[in-house]
Amino acid sequence: MVFYQHPYRNHKSIKLTLTNAHGYFDLGLFTEAWETLDVLPVEVRESNEAMELRLKILAATERWERLEWLAEGLTESTRGWASPSFYLVMGKAKTGQPVVSRNSIAA
Question: Rounded to a whole number, what is the largest CA-CA distance in the chain?
C-alpha cells in the first residue's frame, strides 16, 4: 500500500507558519508578516496564498512602486488569477500612472 506524501516534509509546520504570517498581518505587524513568509520553502513562498499576502502587505504599507512591480510580474506569470491585476491597478493609481488594460476597447 502506498500512502500519499505531502510534497512538503513538514506540512503542519508550513501551514502554521502561513497562519502566523496572516495573524501578524491582521495585527498590523507587517514587517513580521513579511519576514515570516521569507522563511517558507521557495515552493510555498511562490504560492498564491503567500503572494496574495505579500500584495496585501505592500498595499497596507503604501509601498506602491513595489506593489506595482510585484503585481505586474504576477499578472504576467499567473494568467487567470484576478488578484494581481487588482493590485496592479491599485499600484498604478496610487503612483499616478495611467491604467491601460489589454482588454480595453478603444473608442
Answer: 63
More confident residue, 63 or 98: 63
Alpha helices in 1-107 (DSSP H): 11-26, 30-38, 42-45, 48-60, 64-77, 82-95
Which burial class, exposed, middle or buried, applies to 41 when counting CB atoms under 10 A from its CB (0-12, 13-18, 19+)?
middle
Answer whether 78's CB lies under 8 Å from 47's CB: no
CATH class of the domain at 11-95: mainly alpha
Residue 67 burial (10 A CB sphere; 0-12, 13-18, 19+): buried
- Give the pLDDT of residue 4: 37
> For residue 63, what pLDDT is reported?
92
